[in-house]
Design a protein that fits this description.
single chain, mainly alpha, Multidrug-efflux Transporter Regulator, Chain: A, Domain 2, 3 domains, DNA binding, DNA-bd_dom_put_sf, HTH merR-type domain-containing protein, MerR-type_HTH_dom
């Protein structure tokens, strides 16, 4: 196991030592257990925990990963730390390393957060978030975030903060990266979105330029509606295009 383990009865055992460390479960079975408490968690996120050293599943004879009850508890610990204490994965990993050694984890500093009723962290609709926040919400690597910024798919403002919408962008990039699609390959998508935004801007500009708050609100609402309609058109065109491939 890659975790630093402490000895229990002269046997190296990672935390928690009191449950089975036998790798008897597939990732699918682990997912079935975890989603009962964390409904929004995907198998991809569970795999991401391995990359961050939260768990080190065994390699079975068939080549698949094997998980133990101890792995389930480590995953549960990580998800609770993200949800309840807003900890980044690197600190969660360090806390688990200390627990493996039989030591106390690092103290948690209280932070402001918004949590949905099912336990999933939820950002306010209009907010700016730090790079650390972005990593906490997505679990994305420094490398992926750097690639996303370089490709202009997400952009920090002058105070190095991001739109809360960057969370959804990065989550999509993580999925695409697993399919072999890098952020740099998506510049054409960025350009297409900007072209759509330019069109929306031209349509609502006369209303937005009126010097009163009601007109500006009306322009914003119309921009939102137009964007949704154009997104639906783009999805329909993609569906037709895929059928013709």
């Amino acid at each position: 196991m890659s975790q630093v383990a402490r000895k229990v009865n002269d046997i190296d055992v990672s935390w928690p030592p009191e449950v089975s460390h036998e790798p008897t479960m597939s990732i699918g079975r682990v997912h079935e257990i975890i989603v009962k408490e964390f409904p929004s968690v995907s198998q991809a996120k569970l795999r991401n925990f391995e990359k961050h050293g939260i768990v080190s599943p065994a390699r079975m004879s068939n080549g698949y990963r094997g998980y133990s009850l101890a792995d389930v508890e480590r995953i549960r610990y990580a998800l609770k730390a993200q949800r309840d204490s807003y900890l980044p994965l690197n600190q969660i990993g360090e806390n688990l390393r200390l627990l493996d050694l039989g030591e106390e984890p690092l103290p948690v500093q209280p932070v402001m957060r918004v949590v949905a009723s099912e336990g999933q962290m939820r950002l306010p609709t209009h907010s700016r978030i730090s790079l650390r926040d972005l990593q906490v919400y997505t679990g994305a690597s420094d490398e992926l975030l750097e690639k996303a910024v370089n490709a202009k798919l997400i952009a920090p403002d002058f105070s190095s903060r991001f739109s809360s919408g960057a969370v959804a962008v990065v989550q999509a990039l993580e999925v695409l990266e697993k399919q072999g699609i890098e952020p740099r390959n998506l510049r054409s998508v960025y350009s297409a979105v900007n072209a759509i935004l330019d069109l929306v801007d031209r349509v609502v500009a006369p209303e937005r330029q009126k010097n009163n708050a009601v007109a500006k609100d009306r322009a914003q609402m119309r921009a939102t509606e137009l964007s949704a309609q154009l997104a639906a058109l783009a999805e329909a065109l993609l569906t037709v295009g895929v059928e013709e491939l």
